[in-house]
Probable Fe(2+)-trafficking protein
Amino acid sequence: MSRTIFCQRLKKEAEGLDFQLYPGEVGKRIYDNISKEAWGEWQKKQTMLINEKKLNMMNPEHRQLLEQEMVAYLFEDAEVKIEGYTPPSHPGSAE
């Protein structure tokens, strides 16, 4: 059975995650406040970040960096900056 939450990233009601995918307090916040859709978007960004910055998930500093980026992206409306990658511009946006 799916659950609906108010997604803080998308600023709308959306389908919540089926279970907590990330450990600890941050994971609980994500489970309570982030939709499947927004989590899926983050997973793509995360992969690009790991590849671009050559992050090693065995390295605690790298994991911490990734967690900071994740929290900023999901909860603070930040965009993930990936060098050499330009997100497609949205038509009608003033840029």
About this structure: The first strand starts at residue 4 and ends at 7. The CA atoms of residues 54 and 69 lie 15 Å apart. The chain has a mean pLDDT of 90. The first helix runs from residue 24 to 33.
